[in-house]
From TrEMBL:
InterPro entries for the chain: NAD(P)-bd_dom (IPR016040), NAD(P)-bd_dom_sf (IPR036291), UXS-like (IPR044516)
Family: Belongs to the NAD(P)-dependent epimerase/dehydratase family. UDP-glucuronic acid decarboxylase subfamily.
Gene Ontology CC: one annotated term: Golgi cisterna membrane
Location within or outside the cell: Golgi apparatus, Golgi stack membrane
Gene Ontology terms for molecular function: NAD+ binding; UDP-glucuronate decarboxylase activity
Membrane topology per record: Single-pass type II membrane protein
Function: Catalyzes the NAD-dependent decarboxylation of UDP-glucuronic acid to UDP-xylose. Necessary for the biosynthesis of the core tetrasaccharide in glycosaminoglycan biosynthesis.
Organism annotation: Camellia sinensis (Tea plant)
Top-rank EC class of the record's enzyme: lyase
Name recorded for this polypeptide: UDP-glucuronate decarboxylase
Listed GO biological process terms: D-xylose metabolic process; UDP-D-xylose biosynthetic process
Pathway where this protein functions: Nucleotide-sugar biosynthesis; UDP-alpha-D-xylose biosynthesis; UDP-alpha-D-xylose from UDP-alpha-D-glucuronate: step 1/1
Length: 436
């Protein structure tokens, strides 16, 4: 018995024997997904969906990606740190819209030397940004008072520890600042003269090795605070990062200069050999509140002397030049370097150049026009000129200093006045206000 199907098939057979090809369909009907979409108005629904999604994302309030100029104009004070959150995310994520009110996740950050002058200002900024900060410091030149205003904050921890000993911490970023930076300390404490006493060289070499080892182990990003001293007594002026320097390897300053040069080498070795994400900053003379009084650095010397009505001591003929950077500018540069995509090294300094005599005159204008200047023989290996070329930092980090010496010096003076004459409590918090 023939099936119905067979029967119908017969009905649809062409009557004649002549071959007629099937009518051709448009080519896109042959592609299954397109055929599916075109059938039964599905295309209409797809288009409708696209329109609704576009409207939704266009009308949703959002922060637009922040331009460099916006970032540059951001103040460093508390009320504006939201701007930094957004700019930070743009930096690290490479752009994109961030819905308003959405904050970036706080990072866990170690700051070695965080109780020192620069470190404590950096800690203030990181805490204000919403990060959790662990300060590691042996208080060789740092002071608890510099960070005391964070005590009790659950996002702040302080560990008394010498970086020449290994340390294991789970962190995202390491700012490695630990190293006494003033001439007074590095001239009287070279590692090889007094083995038991913590030495500058040992801190720079072993301490940096330990922190790089930590970065490698936990996959943290590592920033080294190197120095303009790596250029020694430079034969090139101003100093560009590509200049290799003119350093005496056996002089009284060598434990600092050569120690930092070795630290840079170690940093690059860990980067190339172990894939550690690193950043290198070469810092030029920096001044501001919380500097050690009487630490032998020229700005703190002059300010302390003028306040105490002592003559300002100028070593040599006073024609040697330096550039002076206010601490908030440096901290901004360090943070941009850490968040940016470039290893460096980057010069971070103020290109404004002053002779020692000019500096003494600015101090006289600011504190005491009658302060006397006293000349003394110069110290060994004192560089004649120092001035950063900051083109690279301007181009790649969008950074340049904003605070002139005449604007920054009075802030340092009021901090020194409080600490020298004790006319205010010494909790550090009153001097944290950085400038833009
Ligand atoms: N301030 C400047 O003008 C300047 C210039 C160039 C480079 N730097 C670099 O910036 C960094 C900070 O300088 P600063 O001016 O704040 O100096 P600072 O002396 O005020 O701070 C250094 C901090 O490191 C701590 N420290 C020293 N040795 C340590 C160790 N072995 N273990 C743990 N902690 C230790 C000190 O106690 C101090 O708190 C230093 O690495 C310095 O070389 C500073």
């Amino acid at each position: 018995m023939g099936s119905e199907l067979i029967y119908r098939g017969h009905e649809t057979q062409p009557k004649s024997n002549s071959y007629s090809p099937k009518p051709t369909k448009p080519w896109f009907f042959e592609i299954r997904p397109i055929r599916y979409i075109l059938r039964e108005q599905r295309l209409l629904f797809v288009l409708l969906g696209i329109v609704i999604a576009t409207l939704f994302f266009t009308l949703l309030p959002s922060s637009s990606p922040i331009s460099h100029s916006h970032f540059l104009s951001s103040e460093l004070t508390q009320p504006t740190h939201r701007i930094f959150y957004q700019a930070h995310s743009v930096f690290s994520s490479g752009g994109g819209k961030i819905p308003l009110g959405l904050k970036r996740k706080g990072l866990r950050i170690v700051v070695t030397g965080g109780a020192g002058f620069v470190g404590s200002h950096l800690v203030d900024r990181l805490i204000a940004r919403g990060d959790s900060v662990i300060v590691v410091d042996n208080f060789f030149t740092g002071r608890k008072e510099n960070v005391m205003h964070h005590f009790g904050n659950p996002r702040f921890e302080l560990i008394r520890h010498d970086v020449v000993e290994p340390l294991l911490l789970e962190v995202d970023q390491i700012y490695h600042l630990a190293c006494p930076a003033s001439p007074v300390h590095y001239k009287f404490n070279p590692f090889f003269l007094n083995y038991d006493f913590l030495g500058i060289h040992k801190t720079n070499v072993v301490g940096t090795l330990n922190m790089l080892g930590l970065a490698k182990r936990v996959g943290a990003r590592f920033l080294l605070t190197s120095t303009s001293e790596v250029y020694g007594d430079p034969l090139q002026h101003p100093q560009v990062e590509t200049y290799w320097g003119n350093v005496n390897p056996i002089g009284v300053r060598s434990c600092y200069d050569e120690g930092k040069r070795t630290a840079e080498t170690l940093t690059m070795d860990y980067h190339r050999g172990a894939g550690v994400e690193v950043r290198i900053a070469r810092i030029f003379n920096t001044y501001g509140p919380r500097m050690c009084i009487d630490d032998g650095r020229v700005v703190s010397n002059f300010v302390a002397q003028a306040l105490r009505k002592e003559p300002l001591t100028v070593y040599g003929d006073g024609k040697q030049t330096r550039s002076f950077q206010y601490v908030s500018d440096l901290v901004e540069g360090l943070m941009r370097l850490m968040e940016g995509e470039h290893v460096g090294p980057f010069n971070l300094g103020n290109p404004g150049e002053f002779t020692m005599i000019e500096l003494a005159q600015v101090v006289q204008e600011t504190i005491d026009p009658n302060a006397k200047i006293e000349f003394r023989p110069n110290t060994e290996d004192d560089p004649h000129k120092r001035k950063p070329d900051i083109t690279r930092a301007k181009d790649l980090l969008g950074w340049e200093p904003k605070v002139s010496l005449r604007k920054g010096l009075p802030l340092m003076v009021s901090d020194f006045r409080q600490r020298i004459f004790g006319d205010h409590k010494e909790d550090g918090a009153s001097t944290t206000m950085p400038l833009s």
